[in-house]
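Re: [ENG-882] Designed sequences occasionally contain unexpected residues at chain ends

Forwarding the minimal case from QA. Structure tokens:
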């Protein structure tokens, strides 16, 4: 009887938000940071830039992996950029840059692009796709901008905002997948896995979210 294939999802990202999103979906990934210098990659197309960066991250991590017998490592690279007012915003350069961005973005909207690259190391296959979600920013005050930037959170993320952290209250609404704004689209990941003939349920390592029990109504 053939032995069961051991799937291993390797996340080529240091983002705690992406890992948290996967864990909430029952997938506990191994994390290997790619070390790719994002500032060296240029493009005037946000979708192209996001998927190029995702590919470079995944390929860099693949070079450090050697699959064991019976193991099928799947390496996932992701990268997000915000297209706003004809410009592409990655991570802000500093606090002053984050402040300037928020002064422009408040009360307006942009499109967050997240590129995904999934590499099946054992089968030597690669699939890629980009998810896009429109983000509508609240009309926040100068004081709120200053307080938010002072936390340091906007400096570490594309577009200078989060949806799952301190920045959440400053987003009026989104049009599209919530995960895309976090940095990883679970529906898109499921589709990419399907292209590699992998069912996402084969990556489940525990019940989600957290295996909690539900109390029956009295």
């Amino acid at each position: 009887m053939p032995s069961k294939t051991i799937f291993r999802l390797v996340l080529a990202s240091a983002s705690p938000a992406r890992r948290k999103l996967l864990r909430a979906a029952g997938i506990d990934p191994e994390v290997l940071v790619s070390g790719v210098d994002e500032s060296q990659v240029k493009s005037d197309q946000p979708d192209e830039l996001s998927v190029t960066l995702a590919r470079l991250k995944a390929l860099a991590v693949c070079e450090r992996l050697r699959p064991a017998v019976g193991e099928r490592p799947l390496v996932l690279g992701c990268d997000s950029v915000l297209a706003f007012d004809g410009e592409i915003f990655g991570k802000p350069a500093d606090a002053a840059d984050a402040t300037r961005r928020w002064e422009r973005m408040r009360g307006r909207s942009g499109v967050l692009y997240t590129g995904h690259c999934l590499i099946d190391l054992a089968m030597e296959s690669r699939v890629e796709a980009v998810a896009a979600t429109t983000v509508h920013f609240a009309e926040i005050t100068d004081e709120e901008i200053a307080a938010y930037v002072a936390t340091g959170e906007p400096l570490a993320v594309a577009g200078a905002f989060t949806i799952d952290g301190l920045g959440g209250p400053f987003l009026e609404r989104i049009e599209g997948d919530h995960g895309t704004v976090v940095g990883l689209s679970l529906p898109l990941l499921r589709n990419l896995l399907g292209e590699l003939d992998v069912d996402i349920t084969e990556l489940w390592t525990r019940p989600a979210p957290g295996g909690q029990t539900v109390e029956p109504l009295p």
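QA comment: On inspection the terminal residues look reasonable. The domain at 6-203 is CATH 3.90.950.10 (Maf protein). Proposing we downgrade this to a documentation issue.
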